[in-house]
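RESIDUES AND SHAPES:
===
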Amino acid sequence: MRILVTGGAGFIGSHIVEALLDAGHEVRVLDSLAAHDCRPAYLPPDVELLEHDVADADAVGRAIAGVEAVCHQAAMVGLGVDIGDIARYVTNNDLGTAVLLGQLAARGFEGRLVLASSMVVYGEGRYACPACGARPAAPPPRAPADLEQGLFDPLCPSCGTALEPEPVTEDSPADPRNVYAATKLHQEHLCVSFGRETGVPVTALRYHNVYGPRMPRDTPYAGVASIFASAIAAGRAPRVYEDGGQLRDFVHVRDVARANVIALTGAQPATGAFNIASGNPRTVGRLAETLSDAAGPDAPRPVTTGQFRLGDVRHVFASAHKAASELGFMASENFDEGIAEFARAPLRSAA
């Protein structure tokens, strides 16, 4: 197959490109290289690279010519700095996706479309109340006054008891709680509308916390694993927010790449949304400790700060059942081995 990967020079996109090439497919990449100084050395030389923004309709039209599937990874990621980033997120994520979909529709595209979505569309994860039995119990956004007092765990909105977190399933209501999350959910809505009108099979892969080689260094738009690794590499202690007890699902980038290959090339398209995760939640504090351990005995140890960000949620981790049963994907990378590899790998310098 000939497959277009938007954002194919980036962290996740480049691993998808490699996995597709290894599977014998022809790959074309559309990437603005805004996060790079030049074509990355890790991008294989036989990959066709179109250096344009996904919001450039003419460039997108050229990029999709003759392709049989589209893997849409191009996006501005991470929680960002503050609300001042809002226009950049909407332009990069929502407008870029709309331009891509418009060009696909105009050219009568009949292949598959796979979208890089995110677990951030859920907001807080799924909870149950051990006292009143509410399930699922959807807590409201955490109050700044509670966070300032170190009261990080959400309480049952019905009886006030501390809630117990559970794996979040794909049918859980969406509740985006920051700008990035809102744009990722809008991308899903746009792609679903496109699929409904055109008949194109659309798969939204909701990535949980992805880590691995080629993550960018020293940027607030990177994931927590990259932020911790950047600090350790600079000889600084990783700063763990809240009390470090936030539960997340950390999934290796090679597993994420393999999930994309399955969605793009499997015998039958799997439509809908799928959690792409390891299925084994760990705390953010555990991630920081494991990274420090892997970096060696002289590496700085994590510091738990009690700081918080209003856009963050307390617990969100995945049920991996639907991806296994309907998509045919199960994560296989070992966490400790993957973190050890990540700790040794150089982080990518951001342009």
Observations:
- The mean pLDDT is 93.
- The radius of gyration is 20 Å.
